[in-house]
User: Fold this.
Amino acid sequence: MKILVVDDEMLARERLLRLLCKLQPDAQCLEAGGGEEALALVEQHAPDLLLLDIRMPGMDGIDVATHLDTLERPPAVIFCTAYDQYALEALQHQAVAYLLKPVREQELSRALANAGRVNRLQLASLRPDGSGSGESGHSRSQVSSQTHRGLETMPVADIRFFLAEQKYVTACSPTAQLLIPDTLKDLEQEFDQQFLRVHRNALVALQHIVRLQRDDSGAWQVVLDGVEECPAVSRRHLAQVKQRLVEH
Assistant:
């Protein structure tokens, strides 16, 4: 794994490099003191991950991330900054994590674990058959949300269903739930090849469907692997759901 640490403060870079040496001893670590140098190193070495400061003279971290978004195979990004007001902008660039300085070892360890999963998903999304992409060919490999713990992400491949309740949508996996700032309609359009509408308030992951079954009242529901909750299937969507499962 190649990791590029980008920060205009040498002491900050050295601290992150020490943590990386402990957490990822086999990683090849590079460093850059600014945005322009970082992009040059990205072009030259194609790192898997950037630990990226935001406030830097000249080209700042948001500018760097904006450029990375244009690459065919962009590296994962972990923003490391002393300022929390950039979290919403970071969300737009699908950052793996948004860590506040001084970065703590436990938080960095968790972010690195997520980064590895994201990279594998990014590669999978580029398979020649184009599976895993929406109509635009650019569906996300993860969903993100700003919480009291900072910027949190969840790989789309782990999500069993999206559930809309009042003004919020929850992404549910076997190990976690995450409130996200997306609408169910937008998620349905973006992930139309991966998720199926089964109810006005629910989308389920096609590849994780085990079966359809009736509950004690006779209503239909979807059984998904890895989770106990079984989203309801509305009468309006039942025929379409059955047809999609036959085709799948």
Q: What stands out?
A: The chain has two domains: 1-124, 137-248. Residues 137-248 form a domain with the OB fold (Dihydrolipoamide Acetyltransferase, E2P) fold (CATH 2.40.50.1020). The longest strand covers residues 76-81.
